[in-house]
User: Which sequence fits this backbone?
């Protein structure tokens, strides 16, 4: 079956036939995608071929030849190209038992000018194994409503062990402006006010690549928030508000939020919509202790002293600020401290 036909049918009929893959299939597809882009980033065409079907196809818009060749899994030529693709498949849709599509984000690292945008993947199951049939990369123009991730070379003051406090003086809105009134700053505690400001996320002034973040958090009933990192791009418009695409440490009322009740990967300390946490938070209204560790391609989420999520990504972490999400519910964070691991 021609891959171009698969993509056309997949994108035009997804709403008509949409079904969510089961957790086992989702995990298998995400793992295949990670292995493929890890092979792409390390210039290993043999490993890339193991994750694809015969006749595998790539499509890209406005990528330089070096990036297009690397994306196709054909290696890096005479010299190793340091550019890496960071990729996250956010939405997986099963069209039939053996065909699925994914919609997500990408960002390049170690390449100037930086590229970021959307990625679309077609998966086909062959001999009970999910493989990649096609990848389409669509870089975006960094203009309203989409914006490049702001990167700062500034460094915060830290103590003898490398820890620095993130408080009201260290955060701004996504555009770099003062934080709006939908947030309340109370010394070292940051409150997302209930019933206000969905899509009014805030970020750190500084950027981080390898780091450990420690923070206390609590939510009001049915509330949903998060800490975002490894960002791809930002967006801001009247319809969606201001937010960021990226990895997310989920902060949520497991028993009151509709998504958390239905989907394990939307529960507290999960890698949102990707990997489910096996650790339960304390009752609503009580403080929890969160830890986020990002080191190279390695990521860990911790909750109340227990490891909740651990994964190896397809690329090293790109430079990004840390984003605190406002999803309309009441959420509070305090004792926010960060330590660089570079």
Assistant:
């Amino acid at each position: 079956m021609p891959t171009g036909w698969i993509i056309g049918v997949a994108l035009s009929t997804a709403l008509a036939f949409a079904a969510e893959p089961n957790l086992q299939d989702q995990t298998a597809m995400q793992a295949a995608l990670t292995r493929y882009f890890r092979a792409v980033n390390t210039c290993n065409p043999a490993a890339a071929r193991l994750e694809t079907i015969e006749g595998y196809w790539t499509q890209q818009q406005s990528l330089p030849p070096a990036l297009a060749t690397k994306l196709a899994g054909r290696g890096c030529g005479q010299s190793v190209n340091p550019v890496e693709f960071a990729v996250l498949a956010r939405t997986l849709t099963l069209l039939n038992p053996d065909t699925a599509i994914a919609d997500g984000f990408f960002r390049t690292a170690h390449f100037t000018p930086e590229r970021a945008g959307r990625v679309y993947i077609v998966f086909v199951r062959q001999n009970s194994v999910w493989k990649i049939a096609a990848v389409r990369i669509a870089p975006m123009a960094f203009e309203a409503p989409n914006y490049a991730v702001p990167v700062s070379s500034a460094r915060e003051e830290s103590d003898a062990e490398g820890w620095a406090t993130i408080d009201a003086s260290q955060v701004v809105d996504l555009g770099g402006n003062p934080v709006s009134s939908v947030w309340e700053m109370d010394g070292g505690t940051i409150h997302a006010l209930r019933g206000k400001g969905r899509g009014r996320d805030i970020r750190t002034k500084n950027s981080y690549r390898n780091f450990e973040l420690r923070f206390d958090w609590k939510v009001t009933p049915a509330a949903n928030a998060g800490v975002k990192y490894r960002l791809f791009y930002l967006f801001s418009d009247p319809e969606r508000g201001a937010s960021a695409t990226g990895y997310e440490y989920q902060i949520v009322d497991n028993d009151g939020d509709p998504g958390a009740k239905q989907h394990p990967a939307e529960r507290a300390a999960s890698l949102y919509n990707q990997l489910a946490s096996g650790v339960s938070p304390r009752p609503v209204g009580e403080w929890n202790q969160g830890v986020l560790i990002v080191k190279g391609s390695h990521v860990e989420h911790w909750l109340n002293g227990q490891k909740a999520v651990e994964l190896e990504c397809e690329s090293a972490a790109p430079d990004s600020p840390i984003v605190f999400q406002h999803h309309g519910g009441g959420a509070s964070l305090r004792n926010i401290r960060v330590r660089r691991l570079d």
Q: What stands out?
A: The mean pLDDT is 90.
